[in-house]
Specification:
- By secondary structure, the protein is mostly beta strands.
- Helix content is 0%, strand content 48%.
- The chain starts with a strand and ends in a 28-residue tail after the last strand.
């Protein structure tokens, strides 16, 4: 049914702002269309919501703003969705608290602009979960400098975006508890990611945390038990926190280019990596236990360790625990590897490792 240029396609639909208050329970079954839609701002301040929808669960064109409440959402598309194709400064999601149990055939939480989470408890599953993605190291290829590097293949049944938390703009997380089991990236930004605190248990068929630009982590507790790459960005800066990462490819990766996901063929070489001053990994502190088949820490620029404790184990043939294309500097971190690459990054993988702490290793991505 259409009124004006609006298509009423939700159980609860508003042409303008919509605010839901109260401590009651709202149960929605949308066999076709969305659960709740606002064509402007969708605001939820409290209450208990049980939503099953063929399309989006909660959708606000200008924004979705949630202060608190309990949400159980099962959706055929995104569970929480904000998108404005008319104004690129709108289409954001802001969550200050609440308890969320999300099962989505699309993305768990998606914003076309920025996404900000200050607190809350989130259990997010997309598609059939991370186990539905086959990630196996089953081929050997030649490295950039003639060394061998393992190649990892992944498969995906379709091209539907099935990320946990996604924004076209920046993502800011300042607290909360996050448990994800996703087909695609657990946390994904086409811009920057800033995490200042929180507890994260992430399982994904692709990257656990991915930004096309910068990833900055100030603190938090991160358990990434299954992923293609653990943390990836153009640059990665970590000030503190606890990190337990098991990755099929790199544990922490700084690389140029945009993410093309781990699906549909060999991932290594999917981007035209180039070393530049914008590409780097900087570790200022934190406790890291990383077990990888790719490189544990791989920078296509500089790698600087100013502090922290790093226990790195690389199980991949032709890869190394530490690999960088730029300058490698350890100013006081406690670094232990299983292959000696803390003294000669990249060299164990057949790269051109530098001397005296300078690494030009290119043993693998």
């Amino acid at each position: 049914m259409a009124i004006d240029d609006n298509n009423i396609d939700a159980v609860i639909f508003s042409k303008s702002d919509l605010t839901l208050n109260g401590a009651g329970t709202l149960t929605i079954h949308a066999a076709a269309g969305h659960g709740v839609v606002s064509k402007d701002d969708l605001v939820l301040t409290s209450g208990t919501y049980e939503i099953t929808a063929a399309s989006h669960g909660l959708s606000g064109k200008d924004s979705v703003r949630i202060a608190n409440g309990t949400y159980t959402i099962t959706s055929g598309k995104d569970s929480i969705h904000a998108e404005n194709t008319d104004d690129t400064s709108l289409g954001f999601v802001y969550i200050a608290g609440g308890t969320f149990t999300i099962t989505a055939d699309g993305d768990g939480i998606s914003a076309s602009y920025y996404l900000q989470i200050e607190d809350g408890s989130f259990t997010i599953t997309t598609g059939e979960g991370s186990a539905s993605v086959a990630m196996t190291t089953d081929a050997m290829g030649f490295g950039k400098q003639g060394g061998f590097q393992s190649q990892t293949t992944t498969t995906e049944e379709d091209s539907t975006s099935q990320k946990g938390i996604k924004a076209d703009g920046a993502i800011s997380i300042t607290g909360g508890i996050f448990v994800t089991d996703t087909v695609d990236d657990a946390i994904h930004s086409n811009s920057d990611i800033l995490i200042t605190s929180g507890q994260f248990e992430l399982r994904t068929g692709d990257d656990a945390i991915h930004a096309d630009a910068t990833v900055t982590i100030e603190n938090g507790n991160f358990t990434i038990a299954y992923c293609y790459e653990g943390i990836e960005g153009l640059s990665v800066t970590i000030d503190d926190g606890t990190f337990d990462i098991t990755s099929v490819d790199d544990g922490i990766n700084a690389a140029g280019g945009t993410d093309s996901s781990g699906f549909g063929g060999t991932r290594p070489g999917q981007e035209q990596f180039a070393s530049s001053s914008d590409i780097f990994i900087t570790i200022n502190g934190g406790n890291f236990v990383i077990v990888s088949t790719g490189d544990c820490m791989d920078s296509n620029g500089a790698l600087t360790i100013n502090g922290g404790t790093l226990d790195l184990t690389c199980n991949g043939s032709g890869n190394t625990a530490i690999d960088c294309d730029g300058t490698y500097t350890n100013n006081g971190g406690d670094v232990t590897t299983n292959d000696g690459s803390e003294s000669n990054p990249g060299q164990m993988g057949g790269g051109m490792g530098g001397q005296g702490g300078m690494g030009q290793g290119r043993g693998g991505f």
